[in-house]
Amino acid sequence: MIIDKRKFIDVLAKGIRFDGRKPDEFRKVKIEYGVTRSAEGSARVTLGETIVIAGVKMEVSKPYPDTPDQGGLMVGAELLPLASPEYESGPPGDWAVEVARVVDRGIRESHSIDVKKLLIRKAELAWTVIADMCVINDAGNILDAASIAVLAAMRDTKFPKLVGDVVDYKTITKEKLPIKETPVAVTVYKIGKELFVDPTNEEEGLADARLTITTIEDGTLCSLQKGGESPLSVDEIDKMIDIAVKHAKVLRKSL
Amino acid sequence: MTTTTYKKREDGRKFNELRPVEAEVGIIKRADGSARFKIGKTEALAAVYGPRELVPRFMQNPKRGILRVHYNMMPFSGSGNRVKPGGNRRSKELGVVIRDSLMPVINLNEFPNAVVDIFIEFPQTDAGTRCAAITAAAMALADAGLLMTDLVSSVAVGRIADKIVVDLDYSEDSHEEGTDIPIAIIPSTGEISLLQMDGFMTKKQLFEAINEAKEAVKHLNAVQMKALKNKYKAEE
Amino acid sequence: MSGLKIKEKTIVVPGEILAAGMDYLPSFGTYREGDNIRAGRLGIAQVEGKVIKLIPVSGRYLPKRGDMIIGKIIDVSMSGWRVEINSPYSAMLMTKEATNEFIDKGANLTRIYNFDDYIVCGITNVSSQKLVDLTMRGPGLRKLRGGRIIEVNTHKVPRIIGKSGSMVGMIKHATGVNIIVGQNGLVWLNSEEPAMEVLAVETIRKIEAEAHIAGLTDRIKEFLEKKTGKKIELGSEQREERKDFERKEFENGNGESQ
Lengths: 255, 236, 258
Hints:
By secondary structure, chain A is α+β, with helices and mostly antiparallel strands. In chain A, about 25% of the residues lie in helices and about 35% in strands. In chain A, helix 2 (about 95-110) packs across helix 3 (about 140-155). Chain A is elongated and about 65 Å long. In chain C, helix 2 (about 165-175) packs parallel to helix 4 (about 215-230). The interface of B and C includes residues 110 and 236 of B.
């Protein structure tokens, strides 16, 4: 627990955090694949003490009338009450919805998945990719952990067999999801005038503002989300993007 | 009742053989106690929070603390389509029977007006989820340092055609000539704290099944004990 | 077969048979059922003569009269303050126990202790219904300004404090960090030197993890010497602490009452 925000900022300005990390230092990331046999693809991401599991289910349904030649993509987030004393049991809170939407947009807007290749029969049948992430232990920065977990789970996904128009979940084919891009989200936090990344849950509660920046491999931005009650200057956004691109490169390598 | 014979289990197990099991304690750092229990492709994570203050106040019991069990399947943990998040009547009922299976060993007299919450989540399922939940929850409660006279160990036994089988997987659980009996046992007394059954069975078969369960939980109890000692072995 | 069924000072789990027959007596954390004495919780088995008891290693802090703890103000009412104390129950600090000064009726109590303030306080009473009363009257009891708080396993607090404060004294001395260890597992640290504060936290985490291993005092001394590059002279309390560890005694200030 941080009693004195002023002091946290002063110390941060000297380049050191309460856990000894530098302001722009991530905790250790570990990615494991195929962690649940019930999903068609899955991954567990451990970021320091934060643990997130993502799983992908593949379903078939009729395409939407406005996109008859495409399959669907859906991303959900569950901030399970087992993961933190602060989470409540019940319908997803604002924060859970925001996490899901930010990760969803990162993947959707980067055209990470070629949804046209999910089509089975035009206007009749198409695959829908449903990725859900579940927070197992919230020790901060679940936004970035969830984003990388969903991406990893998608890369782990193989199509189940289609028998007629029905999915045979017991038989998994060798065919992988048509992934085009690897959009990685990195959230940069602001407190006072200082910027830092990968907060612990204590640091997270203290921050004044955050900017989640999703970039693809060549550094192009594909999604942004500003959160928190304080505004950001253009100069700050400039710095934040550079920090995010740098870390996205490192995170992408751990995939 | 039946004339057919169940000759061989699909996965090659003996009729009284459990699927491979794994157990680990202390996996969720933010919880007061936690555990993971995996049996075959069914995996339960349990986290205990509390004792802690119970709000709203009208739910408090001034005589002793209360135990709440929350059972939930992760959206991708089903064998078919995605499981819609948010719980249903089944998960509510399971929360209640799991709590009742644990209550006999737990003493919350020291915690008037407080609550102990157990959250159970499944990353993957292949039948026997309530049993895995109980086995995991018992470890998590012990990890949380609560007063407990014993652990509780649980397994599903049943009948498929003419055979009594231990630890049914999904294909057996849904067998058209199958009867499933989830049982929880308090190892030190041999008492039964969970007993449900769906399907047909003679009284003789039932007691045969209960005896098989008693044998099987000996192994599960040893696995639970080992996992708990493993977490704390550095303390010795 | 009667007799002891477990090795002394090992971890035992609920339901485990500790001893059979009537040779032993059950004490804290254990119970007798028929011929057997079994563990009634998770803990380290301790045998003293014929008595078997358990030393808890996990579980939340349970408020005890006389404990010095660290709490956080979560509510302010007419008569005083509600304080979160890292336990299943919150506590009450009444105005008359808050300061030595006279407080006017209707005074703005937030001027004395405001929401989110942290205080070092003493527990004066715990009722059967777990109503916990606090006081700010006593040496060292005060509002905390600045610094940070970490949470430690409440069962490791005696080790972190050490005999007559010798362990925490050594950390303070070596790092120059101001440290207060609450019995409720909250530890306050404050220093002008962020790097030293990080080292102090690291040292406390090390004590938490290795509290049981013999020779703790020497290992912590070496660790601090290596990290700070300065020699540490052990005072008389620390030498005593070391002797105690050599005897591997657990009862030393282990904070568990029956």
